[in-house]
Amino acid sequence: MIERLKQGAGKQEEASFTESENEALKKSKDFAEKARKLIEDKKGIDVVLLDISKLSSFADYFVIATAGNIRQLITLKEELEKGLADESTGSEYLRGTEGKAESGWLLIDAGDVIINLFLEAEREKYQLEKIWRDAGKE
After folding, report:
1. What is the CATH number of domain 2-137?
2. Strands 61-67 and 113-119
3. Which residues lie across from 118 on neighbouring strands?
4. Is the pTM of this model over 0.85?
């Protein structure tokens, strides 16, 4: 859709659109950085931020982290939901959570930022960083 809008826009409109697009991407990155800090503050392990904005139409960033056990996985989810509840990235925020802690993988859908919380075995099994290896690591 963005490409269609750009193709139909005049040069002045296109420059304006790019500016607003860059602003939205900055808000997404700031939101992802805040999520990373919240995870690190609660001793999340190997926290990675992937810029998928050029590879994906559904989100701009992935935040991926490992929890040491199920209790920490639940705590990370709760702290993120509480700490990010009032933030904004230019779209709907904290749309929902998928998964159960017992499965070893929780996903928090925050619109332009997708937060993946894993237990170590599940993170190794699904290898999101490998699947998204073309994404920029931050």
Report:
1. 3.30.460.10
2. parallel
3. 66, 105
4. no
